[in-house]
Amino acid sequence: MNDIQRIGIVGSGTMGHGIAHVAALAGCDVSLYDLDEGRVSAALGKVKSNLDKGVDKGKVTAADRDAALARLTGVTTLESLADADLVIEAIPEKLEMKRQLFHALDTIVREGAILATNTSSLSIKAIAEGGRAPNRVIGTHFFNPVHIMALLEVVVYDGTAPSVLDAVLRWGTRIGKECITVRDFPGFATSRLGVCLGMEAIRMVEQGVASAEDIDKAMVLGYRHPVGPLRLTDMVGLDVRMAIGEYLAEELGNAAFAPPKLMRDMVAHGKLGQKSGGGFYSW
What we know:
By secondary structure, the chain is an alpha/beta fold. The protein has helices spanning 14-25, 37-56, 62-70, 95-106, 124-128, 162-174, 190-206, 212-223, 229-236, 238-252, 261-268; strands at 6-10, 29-33, 72-75, 86-89, 114-117, 137-141, 151-156, 178-183.
C-alpha cells in the first residue's frame, strides 16, 4: 500500500479538528468534513488558534503554521473525500451511526483507500461489517488534545489487511505519534483500563472515601498520572464515559465498568463536566 498523503476527516468536533491539525502540520493534504459551513468554519478557527498558541510558545514556526493551514480545507459533502488515501471518522460513539457512515463512504472513496474509526471502545469488526472492502477498515484511536497527546492506539480485527496496518503505523509515526497495536476487543487497551479506574474513583466519591480533588491528587502524585481520573472524566464528558461504561459492562460481563448511581444522577442533572461548566470540578 502506498504512503498516505491525502486525508479525509468526518466530524469537526474536538477530536476531528485535532486530527486535522496534526495531519496538516505533518505535511498531509486534509479535507475536514462536517454537516454545515458554521461547524466547519468554527473547527478551522480552532485549528488556527491552537497553531497560533504553538507559535507563541516557540513549538511551531510561523512558516509551518501557515503551510499547515494552507493544506487544510473545510468541506460539507462526503463526496469531497473521494480521492483521500485515508478517511478517519470522528463522530459520536454510536455503533449504528458509524456503520451507516462507513457504508456511505464505501461507495464514495477510491479503491485502496483506508477507512479508519476513532472509536474509543466499539467493535472495529462490527463497524466494518457490510462494506464492500471490510479488509481496509482499522481503528485509529487518538487522545485529547490530539496535538499534545503522544499516543495513537491502532486497533485491528481479524479482517484488517496487514498492508493497511503497516500503512497506518507508518503514517502514525509521520504525524509524530507513538503507536501501539491492539486487537479488537471491547475497550481495547486504553479505554478498558481508563474507564475501570474512572468508575472506581466515582464510587469512592460516592462512598465518601475522599474528595474528588484528593483522589485525583493521589493518582497524580502517587502514580505520576498526568491528570487524575475524575478530572479526566470531566474533560471527556460524564455522558460519554457513562455510555462507554455501560457498553463495556455488558460486553465484558464485568460490573466494575457499570456507571455508579452518582454518575447517573450527575448526567441526569446536566453535570457533564467541562463542556457543561461543571462536573466533579467547576470549569
